Amino acid sequence: MKLSELLVTPRVLLSLLDRSRTRSGYPDSAALTHSLERAIHADALGYHRFWVAEHHAVPGIASGSPAVLLAAIGAHTRNIRLGSGGVMLPNHQPLVVAEQFLMLEALYPGRIDLGLGRSLGFTEPVRQALRRSKDAPDTFAADALDVRRYLEGTAVVTARPASPGRVPIFVLATRTGLKVAAQLGLPVVVGGPVLGIGTAGRVEALDEYRRTFQATDAHPDPYVVVSLEVMVADTAEAARDLLIPEAFALVESSRTGEFPPLTSPEEIGGAPLGDRTVRRIEGFLASALYGNAIEVKQHLNDLAERTGADELLASTSTFDRAALELSDRLLREVI
User: Fold this and answer.
1) Which uninterrupted H or E stretch holds 198?
2) How far apart are the C-alpha atoms of 81 and 301, rounded to whole Å?
3) Is 235 helix (H, G, I), strand (E, B) or coil?
4) Quick check: bond before 94 cis, omega within 30?
5) How far apart are CA 118 and CA 101, in angstroms?
């Protein structure tokens, strides 16, 4: 019996978010090459989208400019949609964001997405370098609306290159972001605590987004993308071990204020870990989906039922690139 016959496949599209994670023992530039190679593999596997991230002056992430990285990836892929997960709008002028993504759309027509986020820099020195303050007024909703006007050609000035096609906008959302997305009639990308991984019942915040969604010509219906760590391996134990490098990096970031490169599970296991670190790693693992192919398929069915998701955006990272490539292939086979 085929795996696809064992469980009902969720009616969701499948996409990847790659954050250009740096790895211990490799230069930062290798992380960008790794992202490019992963995108080529995802394109061959038939993934729907491949998104990249924006983080500034973070040791563990090499990509601070999604538009530049997407331009390189677009030249080496054919069918997969490409986008940002996301462009952090407080760091940019709306016109400049629109120009960058209109240029990408001109180069790779019908394949470009624009995910918009509102996060500031990772640390206070980075926020100062970006000339952003935590106390600055929240203009995200107005700025997102300006970006949309520039992309649609309805603003006071025309962003170039003008395009007959549409660049869809997605909002990377917390609970506040969900309200903004509903008000503007935009698709939403949701992860983290909002999803309530490990709990039962519908996700009320997503149902509220759907109830309050203001339809537009471009987006007549609400659209939900669920983003979380998903790891598939031959066994649940192996998949769990592959998530530990990312979990450890997050724990270290809270302890030191720096998000570090990925290190191997063996290196992590060889160092003494305090009880607090172990608890935080376990907390991270509890918010991820992992297992063998059949187990992950069941987890995803449950998630699709709870969230009503239209699409899954897997944000998986690990130190072992061969294992990550295998996980991407196995995940594609279960959806």
Assistant:
1) none
2) 24
3) coil
4) no
5) 18
Quickly tell me which residue has 């991270």 as its tokens: 284
End-to-end Cα distance, the chain: 16
The C-alpha atoms of residue 149 and residue 293 are separated, in whole angstroms, by 43
C-beta separation of 259 from 19 below 8 A: no
Triad 163, 167, 173: Cα angle to 5° = 155
pLDDT (tens digit per residue) in 292-303: 999 999 999 999
Structure tokens at 133: 């303050």
Return the H-helix or E-strand segment holding 106: helix 94-107
| Per-residue pLDDT tens over the stretch 181-217 | 999 999 999 998 888 887 888 999 999 999 999 999 8
Q: Sign of dihedral through CA atoms 313, 317, 321, 326?
A: negative
What does the block give as tokens for 200?
């039962």
CA atoms within 13 A on the CB side of 277: 16
Counting DSSP H helices and E strands in the chain, the numbers are: 12, 10
Q: Are 226 and 313 in contact (CB under 8 A)?
A: yes
